[in-house]
Amino acid sequence: MAPEIKYNKIFIDNQWVEAEDINAAVKAAKRAFHRNSEWRLMDASQRGKILNKFADLVERDADYLAELETYNNGMVLSMCRRFIGASAYHIRYNASLADKIQGSTIPCDGDAFSYTLKQPVGVCGLILPWNVPMLMFISKVTTALAAGCTVVVKPAEQTPLTALALAALLAEAGMPPGVVNVVPGFGETAGATLTHHPDVALISFTGSLEVGKLIQQAAGTNNLKRVVLELGGKSPLVIMNDADHETMMNKVLGYIEKGKSEGAKLLTGGKRIGTTGFYIEPAVFADVKDDMAIAKEEIFGPVQSIFKFNTLEEAIDRANATNYGLAAGIFTSSIETALQFSKHVEAGNVWVNTYLHHGPQLPFGGFKESGIGRENGLDAVNSYLEVKTVTISLPKKV
Ligand code: NAD
Asked: Could you say which protein family the record assigns here (predicted)?
């Protein structure tokens, strides 16, 4: 299909759709990506300095941003405060990468000299989910900026607030106009327009598998967009007999006893709590069979399924019998068991005697239907770069 845009509309699924805001944002991002723009002529080290300044501003406004994130998606304030520290750390890591992106020289056959350049892919559309909005914004945006791209961000329709506040801080940090654009809007309109836009070179999306499939289709419609997809998961956590149950048990019992001694009421799981807000007691299911819906489908809420198994081989086979492959964990005191499990489980992240250990340096993403590409670390920056091979005729003899 021809990449057609006219009168602020875009052609999606055989019809013209209003696309004024996204079109304006993509236009600004495209202008900011022109080879002679301020952004493209800027030294890579200066890109890093602006990002470091952005980290300073996030720390300066920590209280405000934490409260805003609580209003944004309902996450408790103490957790939002912790995310601010993680966010600043994340930005500084990506800032440090900006001037370390480099190609290589290649000893090729024939009378020639070859080298590679790593260059930003162009305008990137970044589509965010509602569950960790601020950190997700920071992870995707600062990775793309470290690579030298320009971006149009579409936060989830439920959670636009911190994305807008962070965009203002990026401007204050010295980001040239048009480099970062935020357009709040619905997925079916703003999101779909971005994924169909012929001037967008890459879509990085975090969200559900269903929408991830739509995005991959859209990415091939008006041009051939690169896609990075971080999708759902159904991640196994294996507890071996030789795991340190006692320490874990005492820790859990300690919390329960502490809660009781401080006057808290011990609740059983699965029911709604009160009528104010939308809170559910954490629920634990036992005797869950592999083919039940709660075993296979992503619930994305406080529901835990516990399965019994006899051998490591069986645990690996059953853990792999899902179309997802985001993460997995194992608790064991045997290094051999840990290494065997890590090698054979089909998941993008494996945690041993820990769970959800993340960091800006650690690539994160999924196998199979849990996604394409990685967030964080050098592997993430590579997603936002094209490799250009340059070969120059050069006789060996002088
Ligand atoms: P979602 O897929 O419904 O929405 C995510 C984003 O996509 C939103 O911004 C939405 O507006 C947009 N969108 C919706 N339809 C679209 C379309 N047709 N075209 C373009 N964009 C569209 O997901 P959600 O409910 O916001 O988030 C929960 C999901 O995200 C869960 O499946 C969860 O596992 C996943 N998630 C994954 C990771 C990870 O790292 N793999 C992290 C967080 C959340």
From this structure: Belongs to the aldehyde dehydrogenase family.
* Of 194, 186, 181, 178, residue with least CA distance to 159: 186
Give residue-wise pLDDT tens across range 228-274.
999 988 788 788 888 876 866 555 555 444 443 544 444 456 657 67
Q: Compute the CA torsion angle 56, 358, 362, 163 (nearest 10 deg).
A: -40
- Which CATH superfamily does the domain covering 10-232+370-391 fall into? Aldehyde Dehydrogenase; Chain A, domain 1 (3.40.605.10)
19 confidence band (pLDDT: 50, 70, 90): confident
For the chain, which residues make up each domain, given as ranges? Answer: 10-232+370-391, 244-296, 305-363
Which of 131, 157, 297, 323 is the pocket-test mutation for ligand 1 (most atoms within 8 Å of CB)? Answer: 131
| Beta carbon of 208 within 6 Å of any ligand 1 atom | yes
Give the other-Cβ count within 10 Å of 8's Cβ.
13
pLDDT at 112: 85
Q: Of these residues, 69, 230, 369, 375, which one is catalytic?
A: 230
76 CA distance to ligand 1 middle (Å): 21
230 noted as active-site residue: yes
pLDDT of residue 397: 78
Q: Is the CB of residue 295 below 6 angstroms from any atom belonging to ligand 1?
A: no
